Amino acid sequence: MSRLTESPAWRALDAHRRQHAEQHLRDLFAHDGGRFARLSGEAAGLFVDYSKNRVTAETLELLFALARQQGMDGWIARLFAGDAVNHTERRPALHTALRNRSQRPVVVADRDVMPEVRRVLAQMGEFAERVRGGEWTGHTGQPVRDVVNIGIGGSDLGPQMVCAALEPYASESLNAHFVSNVDGAHLGALLKRLDPRTTLFVVASKTFTTEETLANAASARRWLIERLGEERAVARHFVAVSTNEAGVRAFGIDPANMFEFWDWVGGRYSLWSAIGLPIALYVGMERFEELLAGAHAMDEHFRAAPLEENLPVILGLLGVWYVNFLDAQTQAILPYDQSLCRFPAYLQQADMESNGKRVDRDGREVDYATAPVIWGEPGTNGQHAFFQLLHQGTRLVPADFIVAAESHYPLADHHPRLLANCLAQTEALMRGRTAEEAADEPPELRPYKVFPGNQPSTTILLPRLDPFHLGALIALYEHRIYAQAVIWNINPFDQWGVELGKRLARTLLAEIRGDSAPAAHDGSTAGLLGRLAAPRAHGE
Ligand code: F6P
After folding, report:
1. Shortest-distance atom of ligand 1 to CA 270
2. CA distances from 386 to 331, 379, 459, 494 (A)
3. Which of 31, 224, 231, 416 is the most exposed place for a label (fewest CB within 10 A)?
4. Is the pTM of this model over 0.70?
5. How far apart are CA 176 and CA 163, in angstroms?
């Protein structure tokens, strides 16, 4: 048993679970008219209704006691203060400094980092304005029409998700594209449609060593030089975003065309840094700054609100309740907003790369579950795909419904329909349908027409999906992830688990290319290598 699972707060929750496991949400609502008012809150313009979760006042009290026991307040303070919360890499995680709109200094290694943060923001703003205004031209003197971000993971998912979400604010004369996969089909299919004279590539990589990004950037560079006929064209069509100036220079991009960020920005927390350059290009720097302001408003809430009102903490604790005490394996993210179509994918990295850990901060293997599998799709599409399992399957699946009160596309009555569907689903999941309610169904069909209900959901309501509220929404989830890491006593800011596959891929690449003799592999890998070699050998 670990210190956590043996602790008084954990054991109290375990005992509580055994006593209250059977409580139905329908009854909790029936007996408590004040439930919605008590179990909902507002921060940074977001309204969060968590009343349809399987908790009572007592559950919440016990969860807050767990948060106190794990030193939640202290850990929040340490995050903002720039302490080395990423202990395995001995550095802070200061995404909050990137969007610090206050005059408070943020000190790392005895230096206030805010002047540097502001300098790069100014550089981004100036560049975005020149590109958007047509002042920055390509090698042949034509303005930029297509921006192609080449990056992967945090250097792709965040800016891509935000650009999709803020499409209503986008410049009509500029398209944004995102290439991440090393599969040539990704870049190849896009290049077919692009004009090199009007294309700007943003090579985004924190380390500037990532295989996929460097391979894609090299191919894009070759394509451009071939089409424009001169190597010096690269200077007008390639910029880089990185912490690694030497790497950028070695690739052949002038550091004058580089936007810097710092090792205290985690890849999956980096969209607020220069990694957000495609966002600034696509929607303008003013909008990008509004995004930062929304995140900052949520930061202020997270650092100052008491635990009982602190929405990221509350959502984090609810997740802990489901994962560790009610045995939920997954968490669904269901934006009722087509513009948030990339939000579940973005959160997969943010959450699963952060909290998909099995060793605690003291180096011991944990004996409790950590991050759930994050998945989801926009509503209403999901309703016609996987919702059947939520309604009548055998698994407990906590779900977040995210919806904006107002739409950017007020087409006929589409938005009221969307809202109605969103609310109907959370109500149906919660209430279910009893045998009595199914009494008028044909007897042989009755068992199939009963829904157990009691499926928990949280509804996050935005006034509209604008830059400010989107920033607040993303920061809400970032801090929820951190709050859970505090409870689980794990470091959410490293990702050693992705290294092994990268190392093996390097060995296998040399073997597939025929540069080295096959190493000792397991039977399956050796067999597959053999099959791949055969047709290629044939073709030669
Ligand atoms: O997959 C691991 C990872 O390091 C992610 O954490 C990161 O976001 C991604 O690769 C890309 O890294 P980079 O920005 O250094 O190219």
Report:
1. 8
2. 13, 11, 19, 32
3. 31
4. yes
5. 8
